[in-house]
């Protein structure tokens, strides 16, 4: 009893020494008595006093006051999850009652093929494997009989062809579908970025060799430490320039889940079969889930958005936009996990590629800059290594270099959308370029949790705006034009 009183007294001292309005008489006076008996007050051990009654009050803040120092909101987080599941279950039911089951796995095939005997997108992707001419453009003059300038010219021609050829096929060929085009153009864009990196790195090696003292042979590189792994991986011999200029090395890089070339990639010692199987199952399941959600949830919402757009009914447009934001965001999150975790890890595991940092904790972004530094690591690394830092080294300011990177990124985003849809509206381009002022606004006006909420809001709302813009324009162009003409 006396002990409890003593503990209460010491707690009171910790929370502050505000005068208690309760003191004066009755139970409070008894409490004072107990306080006086506390070890801190007298220096003696607390003594049991007859007058002391059980205390049930002490000086303390309510939990929601910031002064209370309370921060365990685990239950509230669980409540959010339960509410989220409940409200989405209602949406799910409403959707089923309204539209019936729209998921149709067979219909997915028609997204890739118009004509079962014509597979242009696949032919384009297979054609991409003939990228071996890149090797000729990086061979040192002694081996390839090419001067540095001639090599550069061939390299530029090669890269221009890689971008223009599939674009021309996608624009001119009737039998290619928009989805097939997107996939083919994506593969070619990846090839473009990889070959850009391949030549840069080999050029840096040549320059370093030229700077080294003539007559000095390259030092023998050590063997990578890998022998002592539990799974018994063999040691990996390190390669130095120009021994890396082989088809085997080039094709390993082309298939590896990275855009930045290195002569000696970190390698994992063995293929972990269970890990690989888990990633493959995730890939299968999440592909089905994404397709199902698009067919059942997104397509009807988009279709229902066309009329408000046509009537320019702004309140209904905003309502549609907010309705689309939920499935769009959910699908984007699933896509993130599917691509950056399942697919990239599956490929890396198969190729024993050791560096698995494909994403960082972008979900904690408190600024737009942090988001772009952490969400797509292969692209960010490429931008830094082959665009941003070279520009800074040539004397550009950070602002110019950053704008240059976002301009290039905006170009590729537009390239991947406009050409497959056969319409040039610059929504994707504008969306990427808008990241620069957006980054400034968010960092200027929002910090901490508010910054994090602002980043989430731009992700949740920004994407469906772009989706609706493209769908609306596509709809008007392909389904309304003849009616208007008639
Ligand atoms: C533009 C972009 C590259 C800027 O990156 P950032 O990390 O904000 O740039 P910073 O100014 O912080 O500098 C980054 C690096 O440059 C280095 N650096 C800065 N000034 C430098 C200078 N004058 N000279 C050389 N290096 C310099 C920094 O040390 C840092 O190096 P580190 O990464 O090894 O630590 C980044 O925002 C980006 O990748 N944007 C595009 C993203 C994109 O389009 N993704 C598509 C996804 S679908």
From TrEMBL:
Q: Name one GO biological process term.
A: triglyceride biosynthetic process
Localization per record: Endoplasmic reticulum membrane
Organism of provenance: Canis lupus dingo (dingo)
Q: What is this protein called?
A: O-acyltransferase
Subunit text: Homodimer or homotetramer; both forms have similar enzymatic activities.
The protein's topology relative to the membrane is:
Multi-pass membrane protein
* Membrane-crossing residue ranges in chain numbering: 152-173, 179-198, 280-299, 399-418, 424-442, 454-472
Q: Which family does it belong to?
A: Belongs to the membrane-bound acyltransferase family. Sterol o-acyltransferase subfamily.
Q: This protein's superkingdom?
A: Eukaryota
Residues forming the catalytic site: 413
Pathway(s) where this gene product acts: Lipid metabolism; glycerolipid metabolism
Provide the alphabetized UniProt keywords: Acyltransferase, Endoplasmic reticulum, Membrane, Transferase, Transmembrane, Transmembrane helix
Q: What is its main location?
A: endoplasmic reticulum
Record has Acyltransferase as a keyword: yes
Q: Does the keyword Endoplasmic reticulum apply?
A: yes
Map out region (Disordered) in residue numbers.
1-53
User: Which InterPro entries does the entry mention?
Assistant: Diacylglycerol_acylTrfase1, MBOAT_fam, Oat_ACAT_DAG_ARE
GO CC aspect terms:
endoplasmic reticulum membrane
Q: Name one GO molecular function term.
A: retinol O-fatty-acyltransferase activity
Residue ranges with Low complexity bias: 36-53
- Reactions this protein catalyses: all-trans-retinol + hexadecanoyl-CoA = all-trans-retinyl hexadecanoate + CoA; 1,2-di-(9Z-octadecenoyl)-sn-glycerol + hexadecanoyl-CoA = 1,2-di-(9Z)-octadecenoyl-3-hexadecanoyl-sn-glycerol + CoA; hexadecane-1,2-diol + hexadecanoyl-CoA = 2-hydroxyhexadecyl hexadecanoate + CoA; all-trans-retinol + an acyl-CoA = an all-trans-retinyl ester + CoA
């Amino acid at each position: 009893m006396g002990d409890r009183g003593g503990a209460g007294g010491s707690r009171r001292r910790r929370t502050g020494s505000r005068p208690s309005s309760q003191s004066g008489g009755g139970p409070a006076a008894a409490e004072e008595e107990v306080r006086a008996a506390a070890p801190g007050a007298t220096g003696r051990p607390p003594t049991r006093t007859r007058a002391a009654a059980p205390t049930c009050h002490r000086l303390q803040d309510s939990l929601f006051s910031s002064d209370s120092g309370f921060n365990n909101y685990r239950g509230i987080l669980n409540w959010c999850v339960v509410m989220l599941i409940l409200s989405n279950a209602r949406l799910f039911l409403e959707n089923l009652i309204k539209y019936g089951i729209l998921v149709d796995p067979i219909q997915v095939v028609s997204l890739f093929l118009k004509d079962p005997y014509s597979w242009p997108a696949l032919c384009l992707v297979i054609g991409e494997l003939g990228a071996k001419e890149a090797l000729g453009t990086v061979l040192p003059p002694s081996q390839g009989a090419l001067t540095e300038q001639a090599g550069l010219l061939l390299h530029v021609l090669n890269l221009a062809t890689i971008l223009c050829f599939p674009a021309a096929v996608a624009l001119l060929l009737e039998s290619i579908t928009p989805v097939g085009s997107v996939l083919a153009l994506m593969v070619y864009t990846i090839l473009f970025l990889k070959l850009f990196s391949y030549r840069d790195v080999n050029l840096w090696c040549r320059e370093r060799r030229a700077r080294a003292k003539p007559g000095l042979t390259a030092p023998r590189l050590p063997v990578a430490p890998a022998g002592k792994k539990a799974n018994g991986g063999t040691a990996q011999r390190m390669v130095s320039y120009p021994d890396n200029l082989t088809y085997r090395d080039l094709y390993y890089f082309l298939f590896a889940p990275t855009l930045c070339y290195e002569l000696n990639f970190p390698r994992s010692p063995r293929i972990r079969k269970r890990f690989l199987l888990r990633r493959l199952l995730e890939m299968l399941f999440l592909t089905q889930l994404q397709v199902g959600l698009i067919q059942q949830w997104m397509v009807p919402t988009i279709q229902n958005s066309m009329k408000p757009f046509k009537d320019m009914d702004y309140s209904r447009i905003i309502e549609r936009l907010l309705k689309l934001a939920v499935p769009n965001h959910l699908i984007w999150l699933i896509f993130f996990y599917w691509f950056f975790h399942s697919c990239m890890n599956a490929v890396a595991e198969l190729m024993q590629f050791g560096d698995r940092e494909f994403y960082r904790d972008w979900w904690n972004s408190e600024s737009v800059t942090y988001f772009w530094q952490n969400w797509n690591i292969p692209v960010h690394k490429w931008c830094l290594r082959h665009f941003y830092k070279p520009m800074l080294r040539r004397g550009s300011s950070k602002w110019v270099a950053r704008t240059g990177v976002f301009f290039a990124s905006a170009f590729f985003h537009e390239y991947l959308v406009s050409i497959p849809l056969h319409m040039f509206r610059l929504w994707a381009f504008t969306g990427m370029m808008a990241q620069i002022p957006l980054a400034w606004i968010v960092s200027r006006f929002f910090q901490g949790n508010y910054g994090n909420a602002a980043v989430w809001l731009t992700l949740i709302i920004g994407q469906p705006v772009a989706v609706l813009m493209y769908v609306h324009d596509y709809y008007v162009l392909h389904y309304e034009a003849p009616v208007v003409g008639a």
